[in-house]
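Review form for a predicted model. The reviewer records the input and the model, then writes brief findings.
Reviewer: anonymous (R2)
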Amino acid sequence: MNTAAVCWGQRHQQSFSIGEMSQVGELRRGVERLAQDAGFGEVARGRAAIIASELATNIVRHAGQPGEVLVQLLDARTGESQLELLAIDRGSGMDVDRCLRDGFSTAGTAGNGLGAVNRLATVFDIYSAVGNGTVVLARIARNASESASTRGVAQSIPVGAVSRAVAGEIENGDAWRVSATADQIGLLVVDGLGHGPLAASAANAAAEAFLRDPFADPVDALGSMHRALVGSRGAAASCVHIDLRTRVASFAGVGNISVACHADGTRKSMGGHNGTLGVTAAKPRTFQYPLPHDALLLLNSDGLQTRWSFEQYPGLSTRHPATIAAVLYARHARQRDDVTVLAVRVP
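Model under review:
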């Protein structure tokens, strides 16, 4: 792998159910443990704990029904690690501008919740719409003093992902990876056949094969994954190589991973080939697509329903990719499959 590259990818995304005040403390303690295990300093751990408490308390007091907070460590393998919290509720929505003002409250509290989260987070975003609930994104950098001007390649490329195992399974049969340098990006979403440990083992083997050369021609990358998966349960996978100098995306896929480019109100699907890596020898080809200004690439496993559009969610397409991934997960995840949504806005 290119030593100048940074890589983000799924380790384990935890979900904390939030429906009562006792669960606020459970989330805070879980976030503190994860931050400490990841080597976050005292200041950064303190910020993470406050943010966790504020986000969970907001769900309990205002959502009107249980929600969840997704927590994961985004490790860029360069010391640029960030702890990410995605607070998701399916309530009636909120007036975002009013709720971000310190002193505003609909529950008789001090009203500092979202304003405090906004100040303490390294990255902050929020989306709320009537009837579609609210998603709040907060990322805390390992280096608490890090500012936008000092972030490296990993933070300069807007990336977001949600990846969850089907209910009842501990191990996720899906995986995703993003690798980037200043002039190229490699993307992967892989779905191990079935669910559980064997599917997870296949997905992780494919991801490791991809990382050995994440900027290879996508057909060559799929060939490497196919060889790595022989004897396993097998997997579906799609990978995209983006040349930031020419703004061209090269794509190849095998199986049922959906890939689409969204820009200027249009959606262009990138079709793959039938087959299962490691099981049936496929002969995919690489397709190339010019990328419009501010293109948003969405890759998802078949755990996400296909019948949705950005027209259902006014303003969502302009939000942070992590917020987009969380909204789609919250509203369109199938209940009987692992689900992964990876969103990348091409800078």
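Findings: The longest strand covers residues 133-141.
Further findings: The helical segments are 22-37, 42-62, 96-99, 113-120, 153-156, 196-211, 218-229, 321-332.
Recommendation: see findings above.
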